[in-house]
Design a protein that fits this description.
two-stranded antiparallel ribbon, mainly alpha, 63% helix, globular
Length: 572
């Protein structure tokens, strides 16, 4: 590992760790309605919105009401975005000479679900498909709204864990408004100004046309890039304004912009661990989750960096060492502006969260490097994860670890002073089984059908299997990145990936909310000498091992037939 890469990784980790406590405290103050520095500006806007929409923020919702509001809001967002995409040629800022890719009904359907679930799975080139109106009024607005809804669910989940003998989880509409006004909009305003300073465009000018020295004509796309770029990262969305996403110099001009964008991806999900500790009045619990997340994050950095720095094993005679005049390692598919270090940081940060904002071509990673990225997503948004999803994913897995530990010591499992009985176990199992059932079943259908295999345009065999598995994993993890060797813009993949996105959004969030509601109805059980401490090093170790074993039991055969077989047989 080079000194520059090591310094970059260390600085990133130090900054995130230093900001976890203050940002976590701010989020706790926002959602418990304590005073904040933004109240003077945001409270009048919040009051006006409640008056216009006739929402009573003090009206508490049960689990059923909260989950219904969450699902209904996602449905409305999908329908509105679908209408905008289908009608974009009749709306302002549409340039038919440049928007040359047709938005078919199935592509518009897939894209609408993609952005309303924060997946932002894109099987189109943004600059040749979407108008400025579609980008701003449709995609960018949905990035804000879907991210706010996800954060609201995460806060409701924490609230349920913290309450006693309560049948309610808060008010979805109030939580979402506060997520927008106090968190996402201020963060996006500051972040977009920093990106504009670094050279990201923010305009509504027509595309520029240049003539090269060879005499050819080149169209240079521009537009309101900064506004979309910051919220796709801050809201853990990931959809790019351009087809090249984070590798495009207009989306990601400099190494500093790349570093800042990765910070914006990780900060809020990481800080939610501290928010959890504060709201349940067990700060050590939050720090334990953060340490487990950080450990797995570092493991991902080390593994991916090693595999990519070692070079492509398919070319054993090539000197892959870093030396003067050559970058070394596997530079295929990587931006020379960033090199392997910044590319690895981005790949690990985005695959561990629900943000597919890549600056590398995942398809060009080595087989084991691609497996490292895939494994991050197969863990299930546990390492930081998306807004809200990361924290409840970690708690749900911790509940499994507590249950297993309870079986070993012969005691009724308890977590945060709440007993895990039959009803709680049902919700935990629904959550644990949803992801592998969706990913593996959809992958099996794709690899055994003509419609699924016909989309493999450049690769077959183990790499083709990895491409298909990667696609469904990415969609279920609401991540959105994919291998370029799979042409996903077909009716088959537009439908099946949409199913994976819906399962990843609602099939995981609703059982989590149900568990939080079951916990909230209980009274805290006083600790006793036989109580399992869930904020100790030994439990952190148990949780980490449990995470790895659950992932391996579900997906190891698929990984063995995909990237592992590719490395052993084809040595790529």
């Amino acid at each position: 590992m080079t000194l520059f890469s090591a310094a970059q990784y260390l600085l990133f980790i130090l900054i995130v760790t230093a900001l976890v406590k203050p940002l976590g405290g701010y989020l706790e103050r926002v959602f418990t309605r304590k005073r904040t520095a933004l109240d003077r500006l945001c409270v009048p806007i919040e009051t006006f919105l409640y008056r216009v929409t006739r929402v009573n923020p003090a009206a508490e919702m049960t689990f059923t009401e909260y989950a219904t509001s969450f699902a209904f809001f996602g449905l409305i967002g999908t329908l509105v975005l679908y209408a905008i995409l289908r009608l974009q040629s009749f709306l302002p800022w549409y340039f038919p000479q440049y928007q040359t890719t047709r938005l078919s009904p199935d592509l518009a359907f897939n894209t609408s679900i993609s952005f309303s679930t924060t997946t932002t799975w894109q099987t189109y080139g943004g600059e040749t498909t979407m108008s400025y109106c579609s980008q701003m009024v449709g995609l960018c607005a949905q990035n804000f709204l879907a991210a706010a809804a996800g954060l609201a669910v995460g806060i409701a989940f924490i609230r349920g864990l913290a309450r006693q003998q309560s049948d309610t989880l808060g008010n979805f509409w109030a939580d979402m408004v506060r997520a927008l006004l106090w968190v996402l909009i201020p963060g996006a305003l500051i972040g977009s100004l920093l990106l504009v300073w670094q050279g990201v465009p923010m305009n509504f000018h027509p595309y520029a046309v240049a003539h090269t020295v060879q005499g050819s004509r080149q169209v240079i796309a521009q537009g309101p890039v900064a506004a979309l770029e910051i919220i796709k990262n801050l809201g853990t969305n990931g959809g790019g304004f351009f087809n090249a996403n984070g590798a495009h110099p207009y989306e990601n001009p400099t190494p500093l912009s790349n570093f800042f964008e990765m910070l914006s991806v990780v900060l809020i999900p990481a800080a939610l661990t501290n928010t959890l500790g504060r709201m349940v009045r067990q700060p050590r619990q939050g720090w334990l989750f953060y340490c487990v997340m950080l450990f797995l994050f570092v493991c991902g950095l080390v593994c991916l960096h090693h595999f990519e720095r070692a070079g492509n094993p398919g070319f054993p005679g090539v000197d892959a060492r870093l030396r003067r005049g050559q970058s070394g390692g596997n530079m295929e598919g990587k931006e020379v502006r960033f090199g392997i270090g910044a590319s690895v940081l981005t790949a690990v940060a985005t695959s561990n969260t629900a943000t597919g904002s890549v600056n590398v071509a995942d398809d060009s990673l080595t087989s084991l490097g691609g497996m490292a990225v895939l494994t991050n997503m197969l863990l299930g948004e546990l390492v930081f994860g998306g807004l809200g999803t990361g924290i409840y994913s970690m708690v749900m897995t911790a509940a499994i670890a507590v249950f297993l530990a309870g079986l070993m010591i012969g005691r009724t499992p308890e977590y945060l002073g709440k007993k895990i009985g039959p009803a709680e176990n049902k919700m935990i199992m629904l959550y644990a089984l949803a992801a592998p059932l969706a990913i593996l079943v959809l992958t099996a259908i794709a690899v055994s059908s003509k419609a699924g295999l016909s989309a493999l345009t450049t690769n077959s065999g183990p790499h083709g299997l990895t491409s298909i598995l990667f696609a469904y994993t990415s969609c279920l993890a609401n991540n959105g990145q994919g291998f370029a060797g799979l042409s996903g813009n077909t009716p088959f993949y537009n439908l099946t990936t949409a199913i994976a996105m819906l399962v990843g959004r609602f099939g995981l969030a609703i059982p989590a909310l149900a568990l939080a509601s079951l916990f909230g109805r209980q009274r805290n059980t006083p600790s006793s000498p036989g109580t399992l401490p869930t904020d100790s090093f030994s439990f952190g170790l148990l949780l980490t091992v449990c995470l790895i074993i659950l992932m391996a039991l579900s997906y190891l055969p698929s990984l063995a037939l995909g990237p592992i077989l590719e490395r052993v047989v084809f040595r790529i």
